[in-house]
Amino acid sequence: MRRSSPILATLGLLALLLGAVLVQRACQAPRLPHAETAEAGPGPTVLMISIDGFRADYLDRYEAPTLARLAREGVRAEALIPAFPTKTFPNHYTLVTGLYPSHHGIVANTMYDPVFDAGFSLGDREAVRDARWWEGEPLWVTAERQGRRTAPYFWPGSEAAIQGVRPTYWKVFDDRVPGAQRVDDVLGWLALPAEERPAFLTLYFSDVDHAGHDYGPDAPETAAAVRRVDGYLARLVDGLAARGLLDAINLIVVSDHGMAATAPDRAVFLDDYIDLDDVRVVDWSPVAALIPAPGRLEAVVEGLRAAPHLAVYPAGERPVHWHHEGHRRIPPVLAVAEPGWVITTRASFERDPQRFSGGTHGYDNHTPSMQALFVARGPAFAQGLRAGPFENVHVYNLAAAILGLEPAPNDGDLDAVRHLLRPAAVPR
Questions:
Q1: Distance between CA 360 and CA 217 in Å, rounded?
Q2: Which residues lie below 8 Å from residue 115, measured CB to CB, with a gap of 6+?
Q3: How far is residue 286's CA from residue 26's CA, in Å, rounded to a whole number?
């Protein structure tokens, strides 16, 4: 048997070690040539935290002492008005692009693109990582382009190389990661040397949304989920304080939508009103997204308009406040259930009626139960301010201004939220 030379063996070992290092750093390597020339420190820092499914009134109804403290010491809006549809992916992406879903392309959690001839769903890992779905410019791309490091944690869109740009640090989504670990990971990023530290970070917690879906917004299990997530925030606040960062970091705590209670006796059965062979159902409930077969548009619309507790909107007839026209991924017909009602078929319902208990979201974005959370605290924000409701499309400009970034074109308006800031925080 031929023996390897010591030099070749050593080179082989070095190659293996280098490969291991590259794999380990794959989710945190800078993706822009200018990243290494970033300023010595991160400058102003924004940490945006999403509590999925946290309805605006939960803060008054349920025990959340840390969140209440942040609201007292900073800013709280009466409500954050989500974009339509009031779903997770469209609204998370609106928060970081300042674009309505019809302009950033994530028009639903589940959608179909006729140009790609492909479907997208939040559980489709390949689609989620495919940059062609994600239009517009998320805040981490804006920041990276302008020499700032970023670290979005489990934020929709952050796993794709949007416009060919990746965040400096990111995480592949895994909802099994405990909330405490998520907090500790972000604290670890903030503890990096100044020249490596990110200026824009995100956190994401799904506990409240899961409880709301399973048990409904009024259930003790949902109250327990609110307390649990508040405990994660307490861990974060304590960790920042221990590092001397609590008064240096701008915390923006948001949610993507609210939650409405549902029940098996509040179901609309599509097959009672139309022939399902006449449509392709892209998404089901509570917004049925329908592509009628050729020549069947009028019959489908007329049939569905006979259904109680259901509003039917062909293209061109949708409410102006939805801003939900014009993108090829928005189907020709949308059927929207009344709040608290669900859309299904007879066969699907009979298989398991109880799965329509609990709660859901997606309804008209002006519905009170769909209103979301906004609390912010930090050196850029006013203290002890209770503000009126505003649309989440303005949050991108707010964060960009705090970070000193030139925003990409968007649908928001900084002047709509400038009153949340201290007068000297952002020059006019």
A1: 9
A2: 328
A3: 38
Q: What is the DSSP letter of 342?
A: E
How far apart (Å, rounded) are the C-alpha atoms in residues 108 and 88? Answer: 8
Active site residue 344: no
What pTM was computed for the model? 0.91
109, 89 contact by CB (below 8 A): yes
Q: For residue 54, what are its two tokens?
A: 């946290």
Q: Would you say the C-alpha torsion 79, 84, 88, 93 has a positive or negative sign?
A: negative
- Is omega for the bond preceding 286 within 30 degrees of 0, making it cis? yes
User: For residue 352, which amino acid is it?
Assistant: D
Q: Which residues sit opposite 336 in a β-bridge? A: 287, 311
Structure tokens at 398: 């707010």
What Å distances lie between residue 158 and 64, 100, 330, 357, CA to CA? 28, 18, 23, 32
* DSSP classification of residue 356: G
pLDDT in tens, 327-385: 999 999 999 999 999 999 999 999 999 999 999 999 999 999 999 999 999 999 999 99
426 CB neighbour count, 10 Å cutoff: 18
Sole residue written with tokens 């779905």: 133
Cα(11)–Cα(14) distance, integer angstroms: 5
pLDDT tens track for 137-154: 999 999 999 999 999 999
Among the options 86, 88, 97, 150, which is catalytic? 88
Which of 86, 39, 74, 140 minimizes the C-alpha distance to 396?
A: 140
Nearest Cα to Cα of residue 358 among 243, 216, 254: 216
Helix (H) or strand (E) holding 203: strand 200-205
Element (H, E) at 90: helix 88-97
